Amino acid sequence: MSFNSPSLVVLSGSKREMGVAYGKALESNLKAVYEILVDYYVDQQNIPLEKLAAKAELFYEKYPFSFQKFIDGVAEGAKITLEQAKILNGMETLNSLIKPKEEVAACAFISIPPSMSATNSNLLGRNYDFFPPFDRCSKYLTVAVIKENDHVPTAFIGFAGQIYCPTCVNQNGLFVELNNGMPSGGFDTDHTRESLLINLLEVLQNSASLNQLDKQLSALNSDYSLVINIANTTHTKAFEYSALHGMKSTDHTSDEVVVSTNFFTHQGWSFAIPSDEACWLGHTRRDNLIGLSASDNNITVEDLQNILDKNIENGGGSWEYTLYQLIFDTGALELRLKMPTISDTWHKISLVDPFNNEIPEVIMLGQGADQEL
Prior knowledge:
The protein has twelve helices and 15 strands. By secondary structure, the chain is of the alpha+beta class. Helix 1 (about 15-25) runs parallel beside helix 4 and helix 4 packs across helix 5 (about 80-90).
């Protein structure tokens, strides 16, 4: 098994059955990520394991029952405890035990419209930026395709053990990604609500069109502040959720480059726009990405790779916290993934067969660069 390229897992059945298969397929990866978390938070930061478990339990309790059964299945399949599976799933929440408002969760999103892309369909890119110890987790990047009866086949991309939607795509070419929006929407969390992170995966499983996805997201509230970007082959829409102040959305034109980072851009908000420093250089990263994409009307996938690769010092949007990068060609149903902390290689994964055909293997691990599956 190679950890220099992402893993692909293709699952079918009930949510518990898919969780068991996920756990069996990724057992060694899940155990490795868990050891990374324990080493950092317990051994280095002196946080009792009980506190990690309690924090992760809060996150688990905000899941719908069906996806709780998925996580239960992960524990069974990987031969780990349910507490360990919950800690893995809640890994992004753990840093609030150290620095509640100082964490760097500085992701970026860019959408190149059909009128400017060489593919004649939306080209979508994102940088996933996070703090240590998640640089050590990036080698366990996983694309999990879930094929549940009476649901749209959907892939979610994240570290092994993250059962939600940092980035998700489905068989109909729909795309969803999230950015931390706390610098604008506030750092409060509403624990009475289901987690929007898992709601995003649910709604994408139940969306045949951008219109259906839009309606479902418009009806939701968030438990904390997020910027959500959705897209299909022709259009992009942004949702800005605050746990305290509600939600506002923006429909972008089919000829518009869309870039978002970690602050709200809708003109209807009454609060002040955060400074560049307060949103983890979000203004600089956004302006740079807009500038890099503004002068070309025939942007290829390779061009977008180069745009995402350029670091802040050279007028781009990536930096030391960028743990993985993703491009989705909405027309071809093709992913490109790169883990810059591991290598300089972009890996190509076609989702056409995993979405549309019966694949006998539960898992395919360590696929090489530019290998179509």
